[in-house]
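### Sample
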Amino acid sequence: MIRRIGRPGLLATAARTAVIAGTAQATAGAVASRQHARAQQAQAAAAPPPQVVAAPPVQAAPQPPAPSGAGDLIAQLERLAQLQSAGVLSAEEFAAAKAKLLS
């Protein structure tokens, strides 16, 4: 086989061009995917986190115990009056609990 000295042949030039083009395409693809990943991370970091809104707790009106006698009835009415004056019971709740005790 005779080795040529000077310019490379057509086949060598085509092979070299293919290697360079393939390397350039692979590099461009890697750069593009890295930029896409960074853009997604930046969007995720810039977005505010979702806010969880909790419902306010519902306060249940205390149930008065069942009356067992006249002394207990007065004590229960006094307790209801104290709860109303403390702001735990509204006027309507107080009236309903009082009517339930007296019935």
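The mean pLDDT is 80. This sample (SHOCT domain-containing protein) is used throughout the tutorial notebook.
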